[in-house]
Amino acid sequence: MEWNRLVGTFRISSKNDKVCPNDKLTHKNYLLDLGVAFNSDYRRVIKSDSFRRLQDKTQVFPLERNDFVRTRLTHSLEVAMHTRDLLTSVITKLNKNGIVIDELNESYRLLETAALIHDIGNPPFGHFGEEAIRIWFSKNAPLLKCWSSFTEQQKEDFLQFEGNAQTIRLLTKLHNDNGSSEKGMNLTASTLDAVIKYTASADQIDKKNILTKKVGYFFSEEQVFRNIKVVTGTTGNRHPLVFLLEAADDLAYTFSDIEDAYNYGLYSYREIKSFIDERTGTDRFLININSEAAAIQEFLRETQRKVYQSASKTFVDHYEEIMSGSFYGEIINEDCDEVKCFHALKEFSYEYVFQTKTILDQEVLGFNIINRLLSEFIPVVLKYDKEPMNKYEERLFNNLPRSAEELYKRETENSLDIEKDYYRLKMAVDFICNMTDGYAKKLHDTLFN
User: Fold this and answer.
1) Beta bridge partners of 11
2) GO MF annotations for this entry (predicted)?
3) Which domains does the chain have, with CATH numbers?
4) Which of 206, 333, 385, 405 has its CA 20 to 30 A from that of 268?
């Protein structure tokens, strides 16, 4: 992989199958053009309704109204902050090794934008929202008349539903800028590739491989996915900047989940101190000098800083492997106390945060909302453009935006009738994924309570 392909100005849209490497490689103002292109991507994201919806999408606590608890929006802003820190540290270390990459110096805005959009395709109610969609289809899809006509990949798109793949669909197709765009956000291929964690289709998942352990793209975006990879020169590989984005994401949610849960009263200072000491085999963390709350804050700040320094070191140490596509690990993996503490915090979150009754009860509520919405809307969308709806079904269908019908018509323009049901199901899933937590609950309560 070469940086003059990885970081470029070429834009990808679902309306254009033309693909080529960066089209300004020899332009005298190439680096300036990169800045203009990535600033344009950033503005497109910031001004989008999909980005604004993140302010009412769950990070950890579904339907929470306390203002200290993070949402997907504040989480994404924190990830953007960490990407800058990581990139600065990587560039400094590479320069010390005599490696100077002009394109990498121009990638700050690219990575910030990737951080802002990395969760933009996730449904309401956090990762349990994804699970709710998978569970609905595993229980109900075999009962649908159209299901047997789907390919294995099309079936697995729903059974293995993944927010990362939905992000690519949203960015390249669903976003329509209030009706003025048929090309999604029309972002650069470099920005899009920087959020693609996985390279597998839904029927090729191999959980033992970091590249294929989850769905990277849906059948509906297969050509768009391939175009992105051709342009950036990363076919079969991760974009190197994905390693930095993934580390920034891990840093942000691991430490913020611990902070939010403490403020929420889900654990005590004594509990986390004892847990960390036992898992790391040292008592050097969480020294209570003034107050327990202050000790936790200081511990989180210092440990987070040292972990991102460790992550940048690992990236540089394995730079050649990353650039050749032969590095398959995570960059937060150094054998040091801080990284051991980081992994211990992940275990602590699972035991003391995600398994608490407060979280589990809210997840059940979110599951029931998504389950009911899918149960009501899927039979309706399967009638669209095929058979008459009764009055109740018409009223339900009218809740979908007109852009959903327009996208369906574009995607099925050259399809046989038997192939269209896949895209009809997409209409319902897209509709629910675009909802915020609050809107999903409001619509559910308005229609069915």
Assistant:
1) 188
2) dGTPase activity
3) 3-232 (1.10.3210.10), 240-357 (1.10.3410.10), 359-448 (no CATH)
4) 333
Nearest C-alpha neighbor of 160 from the set 116, 130, 117, 194:
130
**Rg of the Cα atoms in the chain:** 23
Task: Return d(Cα 363, Cα 126) in angstroms, integer.
Answer: 9
Confidence of residue 257 (pLDDT cuts 50, 70, 90): confident
Please choose, from the candidates 348, 330, 305, the residue with its C-alpha nearest in 3D space to the C-alpha of residue 247.
330
Amino acid at 114: A
Q: What is the pLDDT of residues 296-336, one digit of tens each?
A: 888 888 899 899 899 999 999 999 999 999 998 899 988 88
CA–CA distance, 107 with 100 (Å, rounded to integer): 13
CA dist 89 to 83, 114, 242, Å?
10, 18, 16
Q: What is the dihedral of CA 358, 443, 158, 116, to 10 degrees?
A: -70
The 10s digit of each residue's pLDDT in 163-219 is: 999 999 999 998 876 655 677 889 999 999 999 999 999 999 998 888 999 999 999
Q: Quote the CA–CA distance of 94 and 103 in Å, as a whole number.
A: 13
Residue 246 has pLDDT above 90, yes or no: yes
Evaluate if pTM is beyond 0.85.
yes
CA distance readout (Å), 277 to 177, 281, 283, 350, 351:
51, 6, 5, 17, 16
Pick from 104, 45, 82: which is nearest to 250 by CA? 82
Query: Locate tokens 């951080």: which residue?
Result: 115
> Using CA atoms, how far apart are residues 219 and 422, in angstroms rounded to an integer?
10
- The alpha carbon of residue 19 and the mean position of all alpha carbons in its chain are separated, in whole angstroms, by 25
